[in-house]
Each structure stands twice: as C-alpha cells, then as structure tokens.
Design goal:
By secondary structure, this protein is mainly alpha-helical. A hairpin with a 6-residue loop joins strand 3 and strand 4. The termini are close together. Helix 1 packs across helix 2 and helix 2 packs across helix 3. The model has no long low-confidence stretch (mean pLDDT 92). A two-stranded parallel sheet has the order 1-2. The chain has one domain: Winged helix-like DNA-binding domain superfamily/Winged helix DNA-binding domain (Arc Repressor Mutant, subunit A, Orthogonal Bundle), CATH 1.10.10. The protein has five helices and four strands. InterPro entries: ATL_DNA_repair, MethylDNA_cys_MeTrfase_AS, MethylDNA_cys_MeTrfase_DNA-bd, MethylDNA_cys_MeTrfase_DNAb, WH-like_DNA-bd_sf.
C-alpha cells in the first residue's frame, strides 16, 4: 500500500460526504491500519486531494494539516452539518453523511 492508493480511495468520497480513517483502511484491504491512513493524509499538501473528508471513527473532526477550522469550513461549504468548534467538533448525523465504499472495486 502506498500513498497513491490512499489518495485514489479518498477521491471516491463525494462532496457532502465523509468517511472515517477506518472506512478508508477497510476499503484499501486487509492489514491496513487506520493510523497509517492518517499518517499518509497528514503528509499530503495537495489541495486537490480531499483529505478534509476523512474524520474520526465516531464522526468527530480530526486533525488537518491546514488547520482544523479550515477542515470544518470546507466540510460545511460542501453541505456537511458540523456541531462544535475545533477538535471538539463533530459531524451531525454521521450515519447520514457517511460514505459507503461497499460498491467500490479495488485495483
């Protein structure tokens, strides 16, 4: 698994939806840890890659290399409902906004 694999998976998350680090890891296949996904995304500075659409397992807003408030701003602009500020913020109705990779074909 390399960074480009992670980027290809998160590119599948449409505007207005989010996925957890675990969701992305499972979409990548067996043996990929959510923490590894976070490490890869944390080192990405390409604004074309929608890293802001990846959140913690419970819908809480996790770190973002452009700042948490920027992540929240981008998600809100895309229509994702967020409650709270900073790292205490979370996606409202996470189940509704959560992207499903169920139909995604790897390869």
């Amino acid at each position: 698994m390399d960074a480009s694999s992670v980027y290809r998976i998160i590119a599948q998350i449409p505007r207005g939806e989010v996925a957890s680090y675990g969701d992305v890891a499972r979409a990548l296949g067996a043996g990929v840890a959510p923490r590894l996904v976070g490490t890869v995304l944390g080192s990405n500075y390409d604004a074309a890659i929608p890293c802001h659409r990846v959140v913690a397992y419970d819908g809480s807003i996790s770190g973002y290399n452009r700042g948490v408030q920027e992540k929240i701003r981008k998600l809100k602009k895309e229509g994702v409902k967020i409650k709270g500020r900073g790292l205490g913020a979370r996606v409202v109705d996470f189940k509704r906004f959560r992207h499903s990779f169920a139909s995604l074909k790897r390869g």
